[in-house]
Structure formats: C-alpha cells, structure tokens
Write a structure and sequence with these properties.
Elements: H1 4-29, H2 32-39
Length: 43
C-alpha cells in the first residue's frame, strides 16, 4: 500500500504539468480572450 504523502506529491506534480500545458497552449493561441479568461483563475 502506498504512502498518502507520495500520492499527494504525484497529484501535485500532475496538476503542475497540466498548468504548464495550459499556459503553453494559451501562449500559442495568443488571443486576448483566452488570456483574459486565464487571468480569472488566481495562482
């Protein structure tokens, strides 16, 4: 059975990877609408 903290670390890494992917997608699109929408989500 896995340690709860190691699961939490893996989840945190997965979320981080998704955020980076989203950020790079926003940069590629470069549209003001997408950028404005992304700013609604605080870090």
């Amino acid at each position: 059975m896995e340690d709860v903290s190691s699961v939490g670390i893996r989840v945190a890494r997965w979320i981080n990877a998704r955020k980076e992917l989203f950020a790079s997608t926003v940069k590629k699109l470069g549209t003001r609408a997408t950028y404005a929408r992304s700013q609604e989500w605080p870090e």
